Amino acid sequence: MPRKELVGKVVSNKMQKTVVVAVESHVQHRKYEKQTTKTTKFKAHDPENKCQMGDRVRIQECPPLSKTKCFQVIAVLGSPSDAGVKVEG
Hints:
This protein is mainly β. It has a single domain, classed as CATH 2.40.50.140. Helices cover 4% and strands 55% of the residues. It is built from 1 helix and 5 strands. It has a 5-stranded mixed β-barrel with strand order 1-2-3-5-4. The longest helix is centred in the C-terminal third of the chain and has 4 residues, at 80-83.
């Protein structure tokens, strides 16, 4: 069975070897059929502490590394500094 891969944005890197990644998905309301954006946060393992706030990353499911950490960072797809965008926070 293939492992689940998701793409999201790093919203916190304050822990050692762990980042919090926010993944957005579009969900349709059952009754009103309006598209809404659902954001889910995942904790992912970042062994080299290379991810920064605002980076777009690809994460992959893995066996549990701790109580709440079941994903690992596969690749950093881009950072806000690459696009010339200023990140506040």
